[in-house]
UniProtKB/TrEMBL annotation:
Species in which this protein is naturally found: Parathielavia appendiculata
Function: Catalyzes the synthesis of dihydrouridine, a modified base found in the D-loop of most tRNAs. Specifically modifies U47 in cytoplasmic tRNAs. Catalyzes the synthesis of dihydrouridine in some mRNAs, thereby affecting their translation.
Record GO biological process: mRNA processing
Biased composition (Low complexity): 257-271
Protein name: Dihydrouridine synthase 4-like protein
Swiss-Prot/TrEMBL keywords: Flavoprotein, FMN, mRNA processing, Oxidoreductase, tRNA processing
CDD domains: DUS_like_FMN
Region (Disordered): 257-286
Length: 390
């Protein structure tokens, strides 16, 4: 078994460089409550995801409770350890710095959540509530970087891109109704021209109150990326449903050929989130955003872990990979079922074919244990027995 000290952790900015040299976006899997666990991260990593996020972890509880540390952050010491960013929810500089110090030996970097719109988080001055606290956010990332430097980690951004002890500090944000406030926020958090405070920035171009059914604000994204995109790499989070149907154009948009993944005729083209309305617009109406460096997917990659590999829908091989990973990196059984209900149903892209029909998914959800679940899926696959080799 690999020792923790032997983990090879590449600097995330090097991954950005690799993607840029390949003339493509960096591909990221979003922080999703409950879902961005190790087994899922390993699955998406096997299908082309460059950088994975953990679910948001509350820094204060993580610092004080070993049970929180055991349950909230799991790594692999025997098998693929995907490049992983640990996302924290915090509102005190010292809490974020201490939590970051704890995970630095086992992760590629840390990220501060300034985008979660849930009411409980905002009531605790976490998540999107921090968009009104730009000086506090600046102080948190500065204190975190200084703590990691004191611990011996290399945190000088591009200067340490090839350093095996290189670690990143980043922030994920939403936007304000008044975009001038967002510009002020980013300028404050980003800091000096010659020595910025963060390695990169993830922008979800919706406000705290904008529902996910509303298209992202492309005008805001265009302004923000043109203003800051030459200073810092920017990831787009939101409406990344399919690589061949993004709501904008880019010099990095060299999408892989679409791979039809179902082996049966398309089924169950009902009831899922509707295709993004912008995808029906003619290509000439799409803005060009040359300063977006990467894409972050949440809902779409939950349905289709092979999204970045060019698959139009989730392939059976991804189901097999997830089950193998879930056995080796155990998840609560109900969570495994929920993952599979998403993966076996219609996805978020234009292709609404599904691995299982709605009645079949209902039958799958009635399985009482892992053995029954594997037998059920093995039978529905219909190609050969024993497909799930655990």
């Amino acid at each position: 078994m690999t020792e923790l000290s032997d983990l090879e952790l590449i600097h995330p900015l090097k991954l950005f460089d690799i993607a840029k040299n390949e003339k493509r976006f960096l591909y990221a899997s979003a922080p999703m409550v409950r879902y961005s666990k190790l087994a899922f991260r390993q699955t998406v990593y096997a299908y082309g995801t460059d950088l994975c996020w953990t679910p948001m972890i509350l820094a204060k509880e993580f610092n004080r409770n070993r049970f929180a540390r055991d349950s909230d952050f799991t790594i692999s010491t025997n098998g693929p350890q995907p490049p992983t960013i640990v996302q924290f929810g915090a509102n005190v500089p010292q809490e974020l710095a201490r939590a970051s110090s704890l995970v630095a030996p086992f992760s590629n970097g840390v990220d501060l959540n300034c985008g979660c719109p849930q009411s409980w988080a905002c009531a605790e001055t976490l998540g999107a509530a921090l968009m009104e606290k730009r000086e506090l956010v600046r102080d948190m990332v500065v204190e975190t970087r200084e703590q990691l430097r004191r611990d011996g980690w290399a945190v000088d951004k591009e200067k340490d891109i090839n350093n095996p002890k290189g670690r990143s500090v980043s922030v994920k944000i939403r936007v304000h109704k008044d975009l001038r406030k967002t510009i002020d926020f980013i300028a404050t958090v980003l800091g000096p021209e010659r020595d910025r405070h963060i390695d990169w920035l993830t922008i979800h171009p919706r406000t705290r109150s904008t529902p996910s059914s509303t298209p992202i604000n492309l005008e805001a994204l265009e302004i923000l990326t043109s203003t800051f995109g030459t200073r810092v790499p920017i990831l787009l989070s939101g409406d990344v449903f399919a690589l061949n149907a993004l709501p904008f154009t880019s010099p990095l948009l060299t999408t892989r050929p679409t791979i039809t993944t179902t082996t049966t005729p398309p089924r169950d083209i009902t009831s899922c989130s509707s295709e993004h309305p912008r995808h029906n617009q003619p290509p000439t109406s799409l803005p060009n955003l040359p300063h977006v460096s990467g894409l972050m997917s949440a809902r779409a990659i939950l349905c289709n872990p092979a999204l970045y590999a060019g698959h139009s829908t989730c392939p059976w091989s991804a189901v097999e990979a997830f089950l193998n990973n879930a056995v080796r990196c155990p998840l609560p059984f109900k969570l495994v079922l929920h993952h599979l209900s998403e993966m076996c149903g219609p996805g978020m892209g234009a292709d609404k074919s599904a691995l299982l029909t709605k009645p079949e998914r209902a039958a799958m959800m009635a399985c009482g244990n892992m053995l029954d679940l594997i037998d059920f899926l093995d039978g529905r696959r219909g190609v050969r027995r024993g497909i799930f080799t655990l």
